[in-house]
Design brief:
The chain has about 230 residues and is α/β, with parallel strands linked by helices. It has a single domain, classed as Vaccinia Virus protein VP39 (Rossmann fold, 3-Layer(aba) Sandwich). The chain is about 35% helix and about 15% strand. It has 7 helices and 7 strands, in the order αααβαβαββαβββα. A 7-stranded mixed β-sheet has the order 3-2-1-4-5-7-6. α6 crosses α7. It is globular, with a radius of gyration of 17 Å.
Length: about 230
C-alpha cells in the first residue's frame, strides 16, 4: 500500500470514527436480556437460538474447531463467552474432561439458570465490552461480535487480549463483502462480520474454517495498539 493510500485510509477512519475503541454501548445488557426473555432467537431446543442446537451446522463446526485446536495447541483451559444456555458445550466437555472450563454471559438470568442446571461447571456474569475475564489458555467466542456495534467489537477483543489468554477464537465470516454497522438499539440484530478486512484488518490466523478463526493474543495486541 502506498503512503498516500495509507494516509487516506487513516484520515477516513478518523472522520468516520472507525477503528477507535470508545466506551461500550450502555444498553448492551438490556438488549441481550430482552432477547433472552422475549425469546427473540426462536428455538424450541435452545434459548440461545437455532445456532446453538445440537444439529446446527455452526455447532458441528465449533466442535471440530475446538477438538483440533485443543489437541494441536495443548489447551487446558477455556473461557467461553458468551456461553448462552450451555446447550451444546457439554458434548465437547464430556469428550475432554480435563479441560478447565468457565462460561461467561452478559445476561444475569442465563447465568443463574446455568448454575442451577449445571452445578459442576463455573458460570459468571460478564460484559466483555468493559470487563476482563479470568485468564484461560483459550477464549472461545462463538457468535458474539456479529451482534455487536463496531465500537463494542473493538472493546470486546481488547478485553479478551487483556485477559492474558494465549489464544482467542472468534466467529469471523470469510465473506468478501464489506463489513457494515448494526443499527443502534435493535435487540437481536446481527450481520456477517469479517475481522480480516477493513476496518479491522486482523492478521493471518492460526486456524480458519471460514466461520471460526483463532489468533495468538499477542498478534491481536499488535493490531489493537496500532488501531488506537
Amino acid at each position: 500500500m502506498t503512503l498516500f493510500l495509507k494516509r487516506l485510509r487513516s484520515r477516513t477512519r478518523k472522520l468516520l470514527g472507525i477503528g477507535k475503541r470508545p466506551k461500550a454501548h450502555r444498553n448492551l445488557k438490556a438488549r441481550f436480556t430482552h432477547v433472552y426473555r422475549g425469546k427473540t432467537w426462536k428455538s424450541s431446543e435452545s434459548a440461545s437460538g437455532p445456532g446453538s442446537t445440537l444439529d446446527s451446522g455452526s455447532v458441528r463446526q465449533a466442535l471440530i474447531a475446538l477438538a483440533q485446536v485443543v489437541s494441536v495447541h495443548n489447551i487446558q483451559s477455556i473461557a467461553d463467552l458468551p456461553c448462552g444456555d450451555f446447550n451444546w458445550m457439554p458434548s465437547f466437555l464430556k469428550e475432554n474432561p480435563k479441560i478447565d472450563y468457565i462460561g461467561y454471559d452478559i445476561v444475569d438470568a442465563l447465568i443463574a439458570a446455568n448454575r442451577r442446571a449445571f452445578p459442576g461447571y463455573a458460570f459468571h456474569a460478564l460484559d466483555i465490552t468493559h470487563e476482563i475475564p479470568a485468564r484461560a489458555d483459550l477464549i472461545f467466542s462463538k457468535d458474539l461480535v456479529n451482534h455487536l456495534l463496531e465500537r463494542d467489537v473493538w472493546s470486546a477483543v481488547a478485553n479478551m487480549v487483556r485477559s492474558g489468554a494465549d489464544y482467542v477464537m472468534i466467529t469471523s465470516n470469510s465473506d468478501p463483502v464489506p463489513n457494515i454497522e448494526l443499527p443502534e438499539n435493535v435487540a437481536g440484530s446481527s450481520r456477517p462480520l469479517n475481522l480480516q478486512i477493513w476496518p479491522y484488518d486482523f492478521p493471518t490466523p492460526l486456524y480458519d474454517d471460514g466461520y471460526l478463526v483463532m489468533w495468538r493474543s499477542q498478534d491481536l495486541a499488535f493490531v489493537l495498539d496500532h488501531a488506537a
